[in-house]
Amino acid sequence: MNFINPCTMPLWDGRFEGEMDERVRQFSASLPFDQRLARYDVQGSIAHAQMLGKCGIIPAEEAEQIVTRLQALLAAIELGTLSLDTDDEDIHSLIERVLTESLGPVGGKLHTARSRNDQVALDVRMFAKDAIRDLQQRVRALQQTLLQRAEEHLDAVMPGFTHTQPAQPVLLSHHLLAYFWMLQRDAERLQDCFERTDVMPLGSAALAGTSFPLDREFVAAQLGFSRVSENSLDAVSDRDFVMELVFCCTTIMLHLSRLCEELVWWSNPALGFVEFDDRYATGSSIMPQKKNPDVAELVRGKSGRVAGDLTALVTMMKGLPLTYNRDMQEDKEPLFDAVDTTAMSLSVLNGAVATLTFNVERMRAAAAARFSLATDLADYLTKKGLPFREAHRVVGRLVRDCLARHRTLEEMSVEDFQQFHPLFAADVVALLSVDVSVAARNVVGGTAPESVRQQLEKAKRLVEATSS
Ligand code: ARG
């Protein structure tokens, strides 16, 4: 065959006389990272070729030949037998070259009515849609684990904190469910992002649309998109969905980092609230006694990295004129990194939480310490008619006195209480229990066992509704 495959040259060689500097070739190549889009690139090309044939833009037999070859290529990609580490500029050039090598000049018809600008926008959207679905499943899995652990420890009491200081007793289940709701917002945010990502850009060509009579709706349907883009200039230059997805990853990671920070702190032997399973902890190379919470620390650390990915993207997009600019090639590495890091963090942390041992006795003891029931005493006086502000002051004095005498609230008699205010009566003694304290907070969204039980049921229904 004396056919010279034009695709062994750059896709744009006609205009050029001289060759590109080798360093520039390496500098501008995206294949080392966009090879990850191979599958989507071929799927998009299959739909495009089918449409070209169906609309009579290229002969139907030729479209069929192209589709058959592309299907074989897709199979090779899935099997990992297609070599992707080549000198091609990007994944689009690679696929077109391989196709044309096996098919001859007919392969060159695939790019009719298409530009790499709408092609790459399509590939990244397809990648993002799959990534969103995958992340949603991983978020769900962690939510389910949190639900399960909360249910196991429904009535366990722990100290609730503000400013890292013991504040009021809360239920461990209530605390775990707080993370459930954070993740619920993440799941919903991902769904929102999915809907804006689910837009098919092909047909925008380089920027202005195309003079060929395309059926864009057909391509969208073939590829499972629910709608097509409305403006070609916007379609080739829009990376909002990339920023949005990486923002979703960032909020997930920030939520995980907060949980991890607590687990690091709770696993400190001085507190001893939790112990990591051996499978999710590491030792020290020098101190034989140590068990380190490295998984939690790494997730906490990686949250900074994902926030960095977001920063890279928004900074790259800032001030870009319409339409496609090569800057936008820089969208892929932060996107891939954010998605991979978040996916892995969700799964590893899920395992760590599922196998965590909660030391509920230590938690209960800590919940009762440090005058954690002082608010209950102030509420008690308030319910007897004292303005809250005054009740607060009375109990503040009482705590100061206890501290000076090194005694706890439980060591005080009714008479001792009455020295601070005559409204204290015999029933005050019954208040001095963490169980009574949490049970009293029976408002919707409060930490009382009854409220938490309702919260848990609601959470379960939500998970069931969205995981079917
Ligand atoms: N590798 C490029 C990217 O990722 C593909 C699009 C190239 N388009 C162009 N006009 N050079 O953005």
How would you portray this structure in words?
With 468 residues, the chain is mainly α. It folds into three domains: 6-112, Fumarase C, Chain B, domain 1 (Orthogonal Bundle), CATH 1.10.275; 117-215 and 229-365, Up-down Bundle (Fumarase C, Chain A, domain 2); 370-467, Fumarase/aspartase (C-terminal domain) (Ribonucleotide Reductase Protein R1, domain 1, Orthogonal Bundle), CATH 1.10.40.30. The chain has 18 helices and six strands. The strands form three sheets. The protein has a two-stranded antiparallel sheet. A two-stranded parallel ribbon has the order 3-4. Strand 3 (199-200), helix 8 and strand 4 form a beta-alpha-beta unit. Helix 4 crosses helix 5 (91-103), helix 7 packs antiparallel against helix 10 (240-266) and helix 14 packs across helix 15 (388-405). The chain is elongated. It starts with 21 loop residues before the first helix and ends with a helix. The model has no long low-confidence stretch (mean pLDDT 95). Arginine is lined by residues 30, 34, 90, 116-117, 120, 324, 326, 328-329. Residues 30, 34, 90, 116-117, 120, 324, 326, 328-329 line the site of arginine.
Share of helical residues: 55-70%
Taken as a percent bin, the fraction of beta residues is under 5%
Q: From the helix content, strand content and strand pairing, which structural class follows?
A: mainly alpha
User: Can you list the strand order of the major beta sheet?
Assistant: 1-2
CATH fold category name of the largest domain: Fumarase C, Chain A, domain 2
Mean pLDDT, nearest integer?
Answer: 95
Q: How many strand elements? A: 6
Distance between the termini: 55 Å
Do you know the CATH architecture of the largest domain? Up-down Bundle
The DSSP helix count reads 18
Q: What is the H/E string?
A: HHHHHHEEHEHEHHEHHEHHHHHH
Any idea how many domains? 3
Principal-axis shape? elongated
List the bound ligands. Answer: arginine
